[in-house]
Amino acid sequence: MYKYFRLGMLFIALGLLSSCNTELDTTAEQLNIKNSNLADAFINEEYSENILAIGGLTPYHFELSKGRLPEGLNLQGGTIRGIATKEGNYNFTITVSDANLSKTFHDYSLNVVIPPPAELTLNIPLTEIQRVITVRAEIKEARSLQAFRTSISWDAELFEMIPDSLRVKNESFAIFSELDGSSLEVDIAILGTSLNGDRRIFEFELRPLKTSYLEINFDTEFISSSDTHAYKSLTEGRTADNYDYDNQDSEENK
Q1: 18 or 99: whose pLDDT is higher?
Q2: Among 62, 94, 126, 136, which residue carries the largest CB count within 10 Å?
Q3: Is the distance from CB of 151 to CB of 219 less than 8 angstroms?
C-alpha cells in the first residue's frame, strides 16, 4: 500500500514539474525602449524627461553610451534632468541593460531652445460697443517674467480713455504709465519673485464716442529674470468696415 502511495506522489510531483517547465519556457517580452523622441528643453528652465524601457527583466540600467547631453543636463537612472544652459541640437545614444544582461539602445536628438515669449491679451469683445468698456490685460504662459512694457493704441475718433481708470490687479506689480491721446504706454515691474503662468495684470476703461467696434493694437516687450528680451505685436477686436456711422449718427439725432 505504501508503495502505491509513493508512486502516486511521484506522478503528482512530475506533473508539477512539467507545469513549472512550461512557465519557464515561456518567452518573456524582449527588452526595448518605448519612447523615440524627447521634448525640447528650454534654456535656464528645469528639464525632466524619462527614458521608457519595457520588457526584459528588471531592474534596468541606463547609460550614455555615445555622444553628449546638453550642458547642464545629466542622465540619472532612467531620467534626463537638470537645467540646460546652452542653445543647440545634441545627439547621443542611450543604452539600456536588464537583469538578464540583455541590452538595447536608441539614438536621440534633443533640442535646447529659447523659451517662447509670454502673451499679453486684452480680452476685447467682437461686438458693437455702446457704453464704457473695461479693458482687462492678462499675461499668459509667463516664464520667469520680471517686467514688461506695452504700447497700446486705438482709434481716437471712436474711443477715449477715462482719466485715472488705469489700475493694477495685484500689489506685487508696480505700474508706470503715460497717455498720449489714443496711445497708452504701460510699464509693469514684478516685485519680489518673477511671474510664471497666467495672471490678470491691469485694467483701464474706454468710453465710446459713438456706437462702434473696438480694435486695439499693442506692441509688448517682455523681460525675463535672466535679462532675456522678447517682443510681440498683436491686434485684438475688430474694425467697423461695414458699419454705417453716418446713418447711425442720423438715427441717434432723431
Answers
A1: 99
A2: 94
A3: yes
Domain 32-113 has CATH 2.60.40.10: yes
Closest CA to 93 of 81, 76, 110: 110
The residues spanned by each domain of the chain are: 32-113, 119-241
* 227 contacts 221 by C-beta, under 8 angstroms: no
pLDDT at 182 over 70: yes
**pLDDT exceeds cutoff 90 at 228:** no
- Angstrom CA distances, 51 to 42, 63, 74, 106, 189, stand at 18, 11, 12, 10, 40
Tell me what pLDDT residue 241 has. 64
Does the fold of domain 119-241 match that of domain 32-113? yes
With 0-12 / 13-18 / 19 or more C-beta atoms within 10 angstroms meaning exposed / middle / buried, residue 41 is: buried
Res 160 pLDDT > 70? yes
Return the beta strands (E) in the chain as ranges.
Answer: 32-33, 41-42, 46-50, 53-54, 61-67, 73-76, 79-83, 88-97, 103-113, 119-121, 133-153, 159-161, 167-168, 173-180, 183-190, 195-208, 215-224, 229-237
pLDDT at 73: 97
- pLDDT for residue 26 is more than 80: no
| Residues forming a β-bridge with 190 | 173
DSSP three-state, residue 210: coil
206 in Cβ contact with 154 (< 8 Å): yes
Cell numbers found for residue 179 = 497717455
Q: 119-241 has which fold?
A: Immunoglobulin-like (2.60.40)
